[in-house]
Design brief:
mainly alpha; cell projection; coiled coil; BART_dom
Protein backbone atom coordinates (compact mmCIF):
# COMPACT_ATOMS: atom_id res chain seq x y z
CA UNK A 1 0.00 0.00 0.00
CA UNK A 2 1.31 3.43 -0.92
CA UNK A 3 2.06 5.98 1.76
CA UNK A 4 0.75 9.50 1.86
CA UNK A 5 3.68 10.63 -0.34
CA UNK A 6 2.17 8.63 -3.19
CA UNK A 7 -0.95 10.78 -3.04
CA UNK A 8 0.80 14.13 -2.81
CA UNK A 9 0.06 14.79 -6.47
CA UNK A 10 -3.68 14.93 -5.65
CA UNK A 11 -3.12 17.72 -3.14
CA UNK A 12 -0.73 19.53 -5.49
CA UNK A 13 -3.28 19.31 -8.32
CA UNK A 14 -6.03 20.73 -6.11
CA UNK A 15 -3.85 23.61 -4.95
CA UNK A 16 -2.84 24.31 -8.55
CA UNK A 17 -6.49 24.39 -9.60
CA UNK A 18 -7.47 26.76 -6.80
CA UNK A 19 -4.65 29.14 -7.76
CA UNK A 20 -5.36 28.86 -11.49
CA UNK A 21 -7.45 31.13 -13.69
CA UNK A 22 -10.32 28.65 -14.07
CA UNK A 23 -11.17 29.18 -10.39
CA UNK A 24 -9.67 32.58 -9.59
CA UNK A 25 -10.92 34.73 -12.47
CA UNK A 26 -14.66 34.11 -11.96
CA UNK A 27 -14.27 34.40 -8.19
CA UNK A 28 -12.30 37.67 -8.31
CA UNK A 29 -14.70 39.11 -10.89
CA UNK A 30 -17.68 38.25 -8.68
CA UNK A 31 -16.04 39.83 -5.63
CA UNK A 32 -15.17 43.01 -7.51
CA UNK A 33 -18.66 43.37 -8.97
CA UNK A 34 -20.60 42.50 -5.83
CA UNK A 35 -18.58 44.07 -3.01
CA UNK A 36 -20.01 47.60 -3.13
CA UNK A 37 -23.35 46.81 -1.43
CA UNK A 38 -21.39 45.51 1.55
CA UNK A 39 -19.68 48.81 2.26
CA UNK A 40 -20.25 49.86 5.87
CA UNK A 41 -22.09 53.02 6.81
CA UNK A 42 -20.20 56.04 8.09
CA UNK A 43 -20.58 54.66 11.62
CA UNK A 44 -18.94 51.38 10.53
CA UNK A 45 -22.16 49.38 10.72
CA UNK A 46 -23.06 46.94 7.93
CA UNK A 47 -26.80 46.91 7.52
CA UNK A 48 -28.83 43.73 7.02
CA UNK A 49 -30.27 44.01 3.53
CA UNK A 50 -32.22 41.68 1.25
CA UNK A 51 -29.48 42.13 -1.41
CA UNK A 52 -27.02 40.42 0.93
CA UNK A 53 -28.97 37.15 0.85
CA UNK A 54 -29.28 37.34 -2.94
CA UNK A 55 -25.56 38.01 -3.35
CA UNK A 56 -24.70 35.23 -0.90
CA UNK A 57 -26.88 32.78 -2.85
CA UNK A 58 -25.15 33.81 -6.10
CA UNK A 59 -21.76 33.28 -4.45
CA UNK A 60 -22.74 29.84 -3.18
CA UNK A 61 -23.89 28.89 -6.68
CA UNK A 62 -20.61 30.12 -8.14
CA UNK A 63 -18.35 28.20 -5.78
CA UNK A 64 -20.40 25.00 -5.81
CA UNK A 65 -20.83 24.84 -9.58
CA UNK A 66 -18.94 21.94 -11.17
CA UNK A 67 -16.33 23.03 -13.70
Amino acid sequence: MEGSDGNAWVFDSLVGFLHGPVWNVPLQTFIEEKSLPFEPTESGEVLDRIEYKKTHDEYRNLVSKPV
